[in-house]
Amino acid sequence: MKEKTEGARKIWNRYKYAALVALIGAGLLLWPGIGGAEGLGEKPSAPAARSGWDLKTVQTEMEDILAAMDGVGQVKVMLTVDSDGERQLAQDTQLSYSGATAAPEDYSRKSETVRLDGSGGDEAVVVRQTWPTYRGALVVCQGGGSAEVRLAVTGAVAALTGLPTDRVTVAKWQ
Fold it and tell me: How many angstroms from the chain centroid is the CA of residue 149?
């Protein structure tokens, strides 16, 4: 029995720092706002996660990114969506009733959106965020006559939106 505890003690002494680093890392991932989905930037637009999703903003950001690509030139982007996404906000609900618990005579329910008082002002607590589902994309650019540019733009738009490449059309600017 003594040999087992000595063996476990040797293993602990050898790996205690690695275990400590792993625990701290797991704690940071679980801490809101530091790690996890928001910290990894899983979705198309990080600012949209805080302020709500806006199609015009996404299109403008995409135009800026595509215009910076080699050979693209001036560019306009139009995205169509199947759904705009949804934000479910945390609710603080209070239920009050009068009479017996088993068969109340009268009851009322009051709900309020949970808000955090942060440095940027009041902010609603988001419980669940679903992102928009894109239907298709049209990109008109000066370099749209080149097959190489069309391929690069199609790949970039597909990567940013999650659309299959057959739903992205790239046309030449006139």
Answer: 29
Question: Do residues 160 and 62 make contact, with C-beta atoms less than 8 angstroms apart?
Answer: yes
Q: How many CB atoms lie within 10 A of CB 153?
A: 25
How far is 103 from 117, CA to CA, in rounded Å? Answer: 39
Contact 90, 128 (CB under 8 A): no
Displacement of CA 157 from its chain's centroid (Å):
17
Q: How many degrees, rounded to 5, is the angle at CA 132 between CA 80 and CA 62?
A: 60
Q: Give pLDDT tens digits for 63-81.
A: 999 999 999 999 999 999 8
Residue that is written with structure tokens 């950001």 in the block:
61
- The values of phi and psi at residue 170, to 5°, are -115, 125
Q: CB of 156 within 8 A of CB of 69?
A: yes
User: Model confidence over 155-164: pLDDT tens digits?
Assistant: 999 999 889 9
Whether the CB-CB separation of 90 and 111 falls below 8 Å is answered with no
Both tokens assigned to 3:
């040999």
Say how far apart CA 29 and CA 67 lie, in whole Å.
35
User: Three-class SS of residue 57?
Assistant: helix
Cβ pair 114, 75 in contact under 8 A = no
